[in-house]
Amino acid sequence: MSHAQTKLSLHHLQWLLVSLALILLLHAEHLPLWVILGSVSLGITRFFIEKNHWRLPKMLLLLPVTLLAGLGIGLTFHGLFGRDASLALLVIMLSLKLMETKTLRDYVLIIIAGYFLTANVFLFSQSILISSFSILPLVFLTATLIQISYRHSPLDWQFSLKLAGKLLLQAIPVMLILFILFPRIPGPLWGIPSDSYSGMTGLSDSLSFGNLNQLIKNGSIAFRVEFKGKLPQQQQLYWRGPVLWHQEGRHWRMRNLPENNSLPIENLTTTGEATHYIITLEPHNRTWLLMLDMPTYAPQDAKISHDYQVISQTPVRNRMRFEGVSYLQYQLGAHQTLSAREQTMALKIETNENPRTLALAQLWQTSKLSAVEKVNAALHKFRNEPFIYTLSPPILGDNPVDDFLFNTKKGFCEHYASSFVYLMRAAGVPARIVTGYQGGELNPNGNYMIVRQSDAHAWAEVWLQNQGWVRVDPTAAVSPDRIEQGISNALPEADELPFMIRPNNTWFSTLYLQWDAVNNGWNQWVLGYNEQKQLSVLSQLLGKHYRTSDIVFWLIATISTVMLITTYFLLRTTRKKQDALQKIYDLYLKKLKKIGITPSTTETATELATRVSLLHPTQQRLTDEIAETYNALRFGKHYESQYWDKLKRLIQEFSRK
Amino acid sequence: MQKTIQSIIAATSQVILGKEQQIKLALACILARGHLLIEDQPGMGKTTLAHTLAQVLGLAFRRVQFTNDLLPTDVLGVSVYDAHISQFQFHAGPIFTNVLLADEINRATPKTQSALLEAMEEQQVTLDGKTYPLPNPFFVIATQNPKQHIGTFPLPESQLDRFLMRIEIGYPDYQSERLLLQTQNSTISAKPLHPCIDAATLLQMQQQISEIHVSEPLLDYLQALIQYSRNTYAVGLSPRAGLALKQCAQAWAAIHGRDYATPEDIQTVLSSVVEHRLASPSGEGQAQQIATQMLQSVAIA
Amino acid sequence: MQTAEKIKPSKFTPFWKIWPRVSQASTQAATLNSRNIYIIPTRWGLLYMVMLFAMLAGSINYTLSMGFAFTFLLASLANIAMLHTWRNLLHCQVQFLKAVPVFVGQNAMIELTITETKYRTRYAITAKFKANELDKKSKQPTSMHLATTEDITAATTQAFHSALKTQTRGLHRIPRLTLCTEFPLSLFYAWSYVDLNHDYLVYPTPASNTDFQPSSIAFSSQSNAENTTTNHQGDEDFSGHRPYQLGDTPKQINWKASSRGLGLLTKQYESFSPSLIHFSWADTAHFNLNYEQRISLLTRWVIDANQRKQRYGLNLPRGNIAPSNGEMHYHTCLKALALMETA
Asked: If you classify domain C1-203 with CATH, what class do you get?
């Protein structure tokens, strides 16, 4: 059947090399430099071997090189089985395979592996840009396959590229049907390499001096929100994330002890209207979902914990879309007292450090200040002493809180929040740190809000008698702009902020916002098309109560229909481009067919006219004239428009009779 | 030109009765600057046709009856030693004329045939290292008996190709035959013919005919025919044959007063132009079918 | 005389010969319609499918929407390629042209045309004779895969010359022709069978031994045209070289010249040879030869006589061929020899 041993020429090799080079380019970002250089030089070597008719290297040489390459990958990635390592391994092995590629069999193997390698890019990114770029190697690989299928002589490069493009375009309808209807089985089927989610960024379950500002410098998107009703004000946009209770030196951590689950849920009383919104959360490989203070509703497969974090059952590893309901005016735990355990947890600090802070708290204690007065005293300190909001704070010493409160006085939200809570706890006021995001940027193009990693924030909640847990944002005391206008306006110019979120960059940010709107659509409709979305789309298409057999039926029915239509168009006789004369003459032929005279392709116009006049002797003059005029126009030269008009007139006359 | 051509045809038709198609073909062949081969049974008027045409066209005419003892020098001429001037003197043979009627060409030996055919192709005679050009216009009208006849040397295919056309005359129809029997005495020609044109006019007409327009679609058709013959028959049409078809179609168009050639022109001349080139030497019966088969198989445009 | 048998569905014909629908081309062209075209994935197609499953599994595992999209696009691409491969063969018209007779051992060239009528060029169409008859002893196919691949430009007729290996003399039925294509992606193989319903002629092998010469040499008294003193090719005086033609005796080949890389040249000799010879089946009886060798010897004599441009006749048990010369006569004689009854 296939002549697997057929040797192919330089021409075919060039196509293969170009296709592979495109794949390499697609993956360049995720490959170590030595793998790229190695593959490129292998490709160039192979080219010159073919061009100069050198001999291919022997197995004896290739085997050690292959082993060496494998070892190199192992050393670079500390293993062979991670996502990055297996990609690099596949690339280098494919390049080495080139060195023994000469028959048809080898070529097809490489092309099929090339398709697979191209698809691998989606493990790293599924953005519009990467997806569009992946079409390029796809077209070239297909064109190479076409070239290889046409072995008896070299094929024109334009032709093969055009045909490849045509085939791929024709493939799109069935692809769309499969994409929409093919049942999405929820993954994973097997274990996922541990490094697969290494690239995801987001809040951490702990807070220490200096780790949040790395996040703030990250311009990537944390989540997008569509509000259903009125937009809340900027200073109300506190997106609640992990709540940190435990202090260990300069670290604050979440309480993830099992007994915490048994804590009673804090009592929430709400006033005012509920705010409805939909969040599209970027994967961050953690379990918490971000909600506006205070959530009253948890999405499926998630629950609200006692301190009003919304926790999903599984880490968020794919873009996730969920609905949220929150009340912006609320009282949390107002009509209850703190249990002994909560009391202990909310007051626990390490007391062997930060003596000056402890002394200050002691002073407040002895002055018999009420809890509210203590809070105000602290905020007063922040407001009136020269505290500065900056993303590049000086390094803090052994007693970090002391150092910050009394010496450096430079920091950002995490410094303010943690030192405030420390101070409160030392003064006997139950307090905790809440991390999350604050603010967001409205995208007018898509009528939704973008919340970035740079909007990450930390604030405090203190427990006051009769008021419950009250949100106190010490950062607002220092830099009200941060809360009211967002981080980009709160910082001194010198601070390094991601380019995207800097102010005074209007035309660019407009463009950016438009691009983000496209991205948002892409995320929701293409990348976010998962089993839930499929369920909702299908129930809209097929009605609420459809069965699996219905999907199978519709899959088969639609694909068959599309295939039939495609076949019709493929088989439709595409006649030679008809010239104007033939079009006119065809009218005559059509008329003849109607009266039962079938013109033959081997018949001249005159012969046809003779045949017609035999059957219809009265028309002889007309048919002869038609034939004569047609011949003059077709075979003569310099025949002017009067002949055209004459032919048209004659044929019209004939048709009437 | 149309008028001249009509008068030539009319004049010839007076002598050859009821054979207008053959006269037109013969004339087309001459106008397309080709040599003509007339093949038929004895007594069908082959010689008369050739003779009449030469007269009507006002050309110098010589006739050579080919026999199996005819030598090349009998046709081409010979160098004879002249004692008076102590030199070889060339005595031109009958070939030095405008129209040479080579009667019963297949009776001569291949050697003589070749000598004639080489002169036909090159329009010159080379003898004893000297080249003598033939007059212009020059063409040969050869007649030949059908091959089965005893004592003939059939022309080889390569030499048949040098004839632009081969026509057959065929029996006259009933009315023409009656007219022939009534009016003409077989031995005496009825009346002397007046030439309609002269050699110079003929050359001019030949020039005009080569300017008849052949359109792209027609060339497509012509090439399709050639290609078909190459795919179908043992030996396909040569490039020379293709050129011959084109020239004949042009001449045919001119005879019908058109300044462009049409597929009909090709179709009409096709049988005369291609059959002697394609038919295998033995298969006499299929010669007629070749043109028909080609026309029925090849689509126009 | 060996007769060529039609492949007819009979109880002796194995089912795989009857089963496929075969287009019949005899005087009419056979059109490959959709019922006559078969299509299966090639081994590359299967490999491609395995790759698709791997990609699908990967997409499910990592929940990659674009992975799904890519996999489905490639799956759909294969599907489209299948349609294109099938379409590439559909509605081609196959017509038998001629089979040029050859000597045993040479490849018979079966000439046929494929006509495109649907105004689209067909790419890389292969015509081949599949081994459908096995030699009983060697179990080797009598016809090898000698395929020709051509494009058929839109609305034109393309000639194909398909080679067929020959092993025995006589008239043989042309085996079933396979037309196939893998264009455009080599993922699918579409093919169709055509019975050309014509025979091809294989001439006997010419004997290589030139020691045996015909005995009954007759001078022609009727020949008045040919001068008996004309030089003919013979074996007395060396007159020059000409390129080797099949049938030339090895003795006359200038081996020295061929060793110098000049190719095979046959030495030509002139002699005054008689102008008319009768080769007779009875003549060959003098030599101690078996039946087929006698046929071969006659074949050699006919070839040699034709090369010398002699007039010759052939007397065979089944009838005589009157003396003549020329290509037609030559082939008539060889045909008669090819069709001699088997011993």
From this structure: mainly beta
